[in-house]
Amino acid sequence: MAHKRGVQVMVDGAHAFAHINFKIPDLNCDYYGCSLHKWLSVPLGAGMLYVQRENISKVWPLLAESERAEDDISRLNHTGTIPVHTDLAIANSINFYNKIGAQRKEDRLRFLQNYWTKRVRELPNVILNTPEDPTRSCAIANVGIKGMKPADLAEKLLKNYKIYTVAIDGKGVQGCRITPNVYTSISEVDQFAKAITELSKL
Asked: Which residues contact 51 (CB under 8 A, 6 or more apart)?
């Protein structure tokens, strides 16, 4: 729809890359950006920028770069001095992801989310802001407790159960974002479901 009107499309794909099984070119977007720490498990500070070849020359580098051809994607990669271990970890993370396999990882992530959401979805006072429809979610779910601010829920989960979450409070969503990854164990998910069950009775 955007392309029909001459509008270029940039996708903020921070929570899709290495989470959902897809290929960037299939999106037909002009640009795609994401962090790599969320689902690829690279250390903080690494990201990826995808630019369709015909658009490379339209983008200015963030920092001044030496003379390179305008259609050379490497001219957009100059970010200054960074911890080299972060970049070195990218290859290992990609290898790990490829060994698991994109579909197997997505299946595991869906299983973990469904495992805990089914246990709390029907509980009194629990607000599950994530639909059951598998086309509208994968690993991420958002849960709240009636009468409890998201920040207070996040604080109780951390203080009382040693579970770290991100409080989301805005744009019609009040709850904590829950994002188990492939290495999250069933016992850890059980502990979270137990915590939500107990907090819903307060």
From this structure: 30, 31, 59, 73, 76
Domains of the chain, residue spans = 3-100, 102-199
Q: How far apart are alpha carbons 155 and 176 in whole angstroms?
A: 10
Overall pTM surpassing 0.85 (yes/no)? yes
The answer to whether 182 and 163 have CB atoms below 8 angstroms apart is no
The correct answer on CATH 3.90.1150.10 for the domain covering 102-199 is yes
What does the pLDDT look like over 163-189, one tens digit per residue? 999 999 988 899 999 999 999 999 999
DSSP state for residue 128 in the 8-state scheme: E
The sign of the torsion formed by the CA atoms of 50, 94, 104, 197 equals negative
Predicted confidence (pLDDT) per residue in 51-60, tens digit: 999 999 999 8
pLDDT recorded at residue 123: 96
> Which class is domain 3-100?
alpha beta
